[in-house]
Amino acid sequence: MPSVEPDNKPSWADQVEDLDDDVDDVPTTSGSSKVDAHITLSDEELPPPEEVIDGDTKVITEYSINDEGKKVKIIRTYRVETRKASKTIARRKAWPKFGDSEYDGPGPNPSTTAICDDIFMTFVTNKEEALNDKEEDPMAKLKGTRIVQCRICKGDHWTTKCPYKDTLGPIQEELEKSDKPGEPGAAGAKGEKPEQAAPARAAGGKYVPPSLRGANRGPGESMAQRRDDQATIRVTNLSEDTRESDLQELFRPFGAISRIYLAKDKVTHQSKGFAFINFHRREDAARAITGVNGFGYDNLILNVEWARPSNQQ
Amino acid sequence: MKPLMLQGHTRAITQIRYNREGDLLFSCAKDTKPCVWYSINGERLGTYNGHNGAVWALDIDWQTTKVLTAAADNSARLWDCETGKQLFQWDTNNAVRTCGFSYSGDMIMFCTDRQMGYNPTLDIYDIRAGEQLANNAPLLSIPIEGPKVTSAVWGGLDEYIITGHESGEFSQFDVKSGERVRNVKIHSKQINDIQLNKDRTMFVSASKDTNAMLFDADSLDHLKTYKTERPVNSAAMSPRMDHVVLGGGQEAMQVTTTSTRIGKFDARFFHLIFEEEFGRVKGHFGPINSVAFHPDGKSYSSGGEDGYVRVHYFDPQYFEFEFEF
C-alpha cells in the first residue's frame, strides 16, 4: 500500500537535513526543500541514491528501511542558489573542519545547529509603549493591596515573620475578646466548616446504614462507653520529639482536656507525628483549632482539625 | 525571521564576534572551547580546544588568520583560525578578562583580573616580535591602579586603548608611553562591554547601571544615553542604520530570586540618535551576554546565559521601518 505524503511545510528537523545536503553540493550555495515525500516500497533491494541536477533545482532520491522494516523512498528537491562572495570568504568556506567538529559531515550538524521557529521583531511605537506600561501596572497595583495576612496578629506580613510568632498570647487575647468562641471571625470559619460537613456527609451522598441514620441512633449501638468524639481535635505535623506533656502545655489554655492520645511508634516510642486531644467542651476544641492551626511549633507548622469519628470513614 | 540556533556551548556565552567580512562568527563561553561558525547557515567550522577554564573574551584579526582568547585559566592564547591549532600561550598570574587585536593585527593586548594579591595589568605585545613572546616580555605592561578593567578595545588608530572599569569609568591609555591620558566616569556601575562603530570613531558602552551610552572614542565625550530597566550586558551599533542593539536582562544570579514573570531577555533596538527604543526581539531563555552586528548590517547575533547563540537575519520590515520624528 504505497502512501505518499506531500509535505509542503517540512518540520524543522527536515530543514536542517536539507541545508545539510545543500551545502554539501556547492560550497557557495544555499537552498530550501520544496517536497519531502515518503513512499513505501515492497521491493527487497535498496537502490542506490540518485542525484539529478536540472538547472537550479537538485533532486536527491534516497532509499532506506524504516523501523517497521518497510522501505522508504525519500525525494528531496532543492533550489540551488549561487551567492557571490569575495575570494577570501570562498576560500574560508572550503576550510576543513577542526576541533570538535572535525568529524562532522559537510553542512550543519543538527546537534549543534538548529533552525528556530519564526519570530518577529516587535516594533515599539509610543502607543505600544504606553500599553506596556499598563501591563506593568498589575504588579504596582498589588503593592497597595495586602497579599499576605499574618494569622497571628493579622498584620501585613507572613505568619513566620510575625513578631508574636512564638507567643500564643495574642491569639488568646483575641479569642477572649470575641464573644462567641466558636466563630471568631475569619479563622473561626475554618472551625465551623467540619462541623457542618460532618452531618452533611452522614445525611446525603453516601449510603448510611439504617442503624446510623438520624440523630438518635437505634439499639444497634452496643458500645456503651463510646467516647464523645464531638470535642476531639486531631493535631498533625507534630515533630518526633513531641511528648504528651508538651501537648498538655500547648492546649491547656483553651480549656479542660479529658484525654490526650499521642500516636507513638511501638519500638522507638517516638511520636508518629499526630495526636488526638479530647476536650470536655466542644467550644474549647473549636477555639483550640482556630488558635493553634497553622501555629509554628518546633519548626513545624501544626495542622489542627476536627477529628473524624473513628467508626465511619 | 527564523533565527539559527547554535548549540555548541555547554555553558553561558561570554562573547561573540564576527570577523571583518562577517562570514565567520566566533563565540566563547564559560566552557573551555571557543567555537567558530559559518554565519550564513550556522554550520560549525571548528572549536579551539586547549583552555582549562572559562573563556572570557576573544578577538579575531582583520585577515581572519588568528584568533586571540582570554580565559580564566590564567592564560591568553593565540590560535590559528584555519586549523584550530594553538600558536602561542601567554601565562599570567591571574584570569585574563579581556583581549583584543589592534586594527593592524600586529599587536595584541590583554588585561588581567585583580585576584590573589596581584594587581591587574594591561599587557601589550607585538606578535611579530619573537623575542617578546619567547621571553614573555611585553612591549608594554601597564599596571592598573584602582578598579579592575572589565572591557577594553583598541582606540581609533591603534594609538591608545580604551578600557572600561568595574567602577563604571573609562580610561584611555597611550600605547607608546603607557600613560593614562583620559579618565571619565559617567556610568555608575561596571562596564560590561565596549564596542566600536564601523569607522572606530565612537563606541557604545554597556553597563550594569542599566544604561548604554555612546561616547566619542577620541575625546571620551558622552554623546547619547540609551536607558533600560535592566543591566545591559552588551551593546552594538549597526554599521548600516542608525541603530543600536542592547542585550541584557536581569542578572543571571538573580533570575530565580524574583517573582516577576520571565522575560526582559529581549534584544532591544534603539535609535542611535533619538535614544528611543523602536523594536524588540525575543528568543533567549536567559539574559543576553553578548550581541554583535554582522558587518553588513543585515543580520545580528546574540549569545545568552542560556548557552545558545542565535543568528538573526532581519526581515524586510526592519529595513523598511522608518523611525517617526
Task: Reconstruct the topology from this structure.
The complex is a heterodimer of chains A (313) and B (325).
Chain A: H1 12-25, E1 29-30, E2 33-41, E3 50-54, E4 57-65, E5 71-79, E6 81-82, H2 87-93, E7 113-115, E8 122-123, H3 126-144, H4 169-177, H5 185-203, E9 232-236, H6 244-251, E10 257-264, E11 271-279, H7 282-292, E12 296-297, E13 300-301, E14 303-306
Helix pairs in contact in A: 5-7
Chain B: E1 4-6, E2 13-18, E3 24-29, E4 35-38, E5 44-47, E6 55-60, E7 66-71, E8 75-80, E9 86-91, E10 96-101, E11 107-112, E12 121-126, H1 130-134, E13 140-143, E14 149-154, E15 160-165, E16 169-174, E17 180-185, E18 191-196, E19 202-207, E20 211-216, E21 222-227, E22 232-237, E23 243-248, E24 267-271, E25 277-281, E26 288-293, E27 299-304, E28 309-313, H2 316-320
Antiparallel strand pairs in B: 1-28, 2-3, 3-4, 4-5, 6-7, 7-8, 8-9, 10-11, 11-12, 12-13, 14-15, 15-16, 16-17, 18-19, 19-20, 20-21, 22-23, 23-24, 24-25, 26-27, 27-28
Tell me briefly what this model is.
Chain B: One of its GO terms (cellular component) is eukaryotic 43S preinitiation complex. By secondary structure, chain A is of the alpha+beta class. Helix content of chain A is 28%, strand content 23%.
CATH fold descriptor of the domain at 180-212 and 229-306 in chain A: Alpha-Beta Plaits
- Domain count of chain B, please report it: 1
Largest interface: A-B, 38 and 45 residues
Strand order of the largest sheet of chain B: 1-28-27-26
By CATH reckoning, the class of the domain at 180-212 and 229-306 in chain A would read Alpha Beta
CATH superfamily of the domain at 180-212 and 229-306 in chain A: RRM (RNA recognition motif) domain
Spatial sequence of strands, sheet with the most strands of chain A: 2-5-4-3
Offer a few descriptive terms.
heterodimer; A: 313 residues; alpha+beta; Alpha-Beta Plaits; 4-stranded antiparallel β-sheet; 7 helices; B: 325 residues; mainly beta; Methylamine Dehydrogenase, Chain H; 2 helices; globular; initiation factor (chain A); RNA binding (chain A); RRM_dom (chain A); eIF3g_N (chain A); cytoplasm (chain A)
